[in-house]
Amino acid sequence: MTEPNLIDAAADEAVTLTSELIRIDTTNTGDPTTLVGERAAAEFVAEKLTEVGYEITYVESGGKDRHNVIARLAGADPSRGALLVHGHLDVVPADPSEWSVHPFSGAIQDGYVWGRGAVDMKDMVGMTLALARHYKRHDIVPPRDIIFAFLADEEAGGKFGAQWLVDNRPDLFEGATEAISEVGGFSITLRDNVRAYLIETAEKGIRWMKLRVRGTAGHGSMIHRDNAVTKLSEAVARLGNHRFPLVLTDSVREFLAGVTEITGWDFPEDDLEGAVAKLGNISRMIGATLRDTANPTMLTAGYKSNVIPSTAEAAVDCRILPGRLEAFDRELDELLGPDIEKEWMELPPVETTFDGALVDAMTAAVLAEDPGARTLPYMLSGGTDAKSFQRLGIRNFGFAPLRLPADLDFSALFHGVDERVPVDALRFGTRVLDRFFRAS
Ligand SMILES: [Zn+2]
Questions:
Q1: Is 255 helix (H, G, I), strand (E, B) or coil?
Q2: Strand (E) positions, 184-292?
C-alpha cells in the first residue's frame, strides 16, 4: 500500500484532473464535422503522461481527426499478461440552459465535481491518469504491465476509437489479457446501510436497425392499397409492442442471488419485474437486462400531405442479451414479415464470469476501503468499448469504483442534466484503484 500522504496527493490530483478534463468540451454528436475538443483532451492527457516520464503512443484513428493516447507501465513480471485500463475522452452533448452550472465548467462545489463527463467517464480517466502519474513519479512497479488507453469516439460506438484501434493497431494491446473501464464499481445502498458495489461482467448487444418499406407512390385523394407509410407503421407498432421473453443470464442471476443474500428479498420468476422495482433507481437498468428490447426511435416518410410516398423508413434501437442473437433474429423475422427491408449496425453482447484472481483483487480492494460492503456482478443494459476489446480475446470488467451517497440517482446522471460526481467518491475510487493495481 502507498503511504497515506502519498495516495492522498494522488486522490487530490484525481479530483483536479477530473475537473480540468470536464472543462475541455469533448462533445461527440456522432457527426465528425461537429467535433470540438477531442484533440485538446488527448493532448492534455499526453502532456500529463510525458511530463512524468511516460513514452506515449499518440494515434490519430481513421484519418478522421480522432485522437487516442496509449502508454504502458512496465510491471515486475513481464511474463504475465498485461492489464488494460481504458477510458474514453469524448462526452455526449449538453445544453447549458438546462443545467444548474455550466456543463463544461468542471465546477467543484457542494462536495461534487460538476459537468458533462463527471460520471461518463472523465471521473475514471481522472483517477487513472492521477495514478499513472503517481506510479511513475514514485517509481512504483505494479505486479504486471498496465496499459493505459485514452480513447476517442466511444459515445458514437467507437468506430473511430476503440474499434479502429483493435482493427488497425492491435499491437498496442499486445499481451493484454484483462481490462477494466466503465460502467461498474459504483455502490448501491441496500438494507441497513449495506453497500453493494456492482462490477460489470456483461453487456447487452447493440443493434441499431433501419427498417424500410417500399410501396407504390400515388395521389392522397385516391383509393390506394399499397401505402408504404401504413405498412411500415403496422410493422413498427408490432415490434414496439412486442415483449421479448424473460431470460435470466448468469450475470443477472448471480446479481439477484447476491441481493437476496443481503436483503432477504425474493425475486420470483413469475413477477421478476415487480420484484426488481424494489431496487429503486437502479431498477431501470437492471430491469432492462431481463429481456431483449426493440424500441422504435425515428420515423421518416413523405414530403407532402397529399402525396403517398413510395418508401417509408424507421430506426429501431435493439438491445440483445448474451446468447440470444439467433432467437432474437427469428422473433424479429416473424414480427416484421418478408416485406420489410432491414439493415443495421451491430455490436456484440459481452459476458464473462465473476471469478478468478482479478475479481478477487477488485473485491479485496473495495472491502479494504469499505469494510462490510459486498461486490456483485451485473449486466449493463448499454454498451461500452469493451465490445471492441473483447475481439482481442480480452476479458472485460466495468470497474470504476465510486462510493456513492445512498440517495444519489446515479444511473440518471449518465447523459443526464446536472451530471456530477462526489469529490469523496473520486478520492475513494483512487484509493481502491491503487490497491487494485498494486495487487492485480
Ligand atoms: Zn461512457
A1: helix
A2: 186-189, 195-203, 205-214, 218-219
Which pLDDT value is given to residue 193? 79
Segment 194-245, tens digit of pLDDT? 899 999 999 999 999 999 999 999 999 999 889 999 999 999 999 999 999 9
124 Cα–ligand 1 center, Å: 10
Compute, in angstroms, the gap from residue 88 CA to the centroid of ligand 1.
7
The C-alpha cell 467535433 sits at 35
Q: From CA 307, how far away is CA 144, in angstroms rounded? A: 66
Whole-angstrom distance, CA of residue 179 vs CA of residue 15 = 23
With a CB cutoff of 8 Å and minimum separation 6, the contacts of 101 are: 107, 109, 114, 115, 418
- Whether the pLDDT of residue 192 is over 80: the answer is no
- Residue 312 Cα to ligand 1 midpoint, Å, equals 33
Residue 89 Cα distances to 42, 272, 308, 432, angstroms: 7, 37, 45, 22
Nearest to 36 by CA among 94, 120, 111: 94
Q: How many CB atoms lie within 10 A of CB 230?
A: 15
Decide: helix, strand or coil at residue 98: helix
Only one residue has cell 461534487, namely 112
Beta strands per DSSP E along 194-340: 195-203, 205-214, 218-219, 293-301, 307-308, 311-320
d(CA 209, CA 194): 41
Single out the residue of 10, 435, 377 nearest to residue 196, CA to CA: 377
Give the closest residue to 228 by CA, choosing from 307, 302, 311, 337: 311
Cell 478468478 sits on residue: 356
- Between the CA of 271 and the centroid of ligand 1 the distance, in Å, is 31
Ligand 1 center to 91 CA (angstroms): 7
With residue 149 as reference, give the H or E element that holds it.
strand 146-151
Query: Measured between alpha carbons, how far is 285 from 200 in angstroms, rounded to an integer?
Result: 12
| Lookup: cell for 354 | 465473476
Q: In what order do the strands lie in the sheet with 112-114?
A: 108-109, 112-114, 420-422
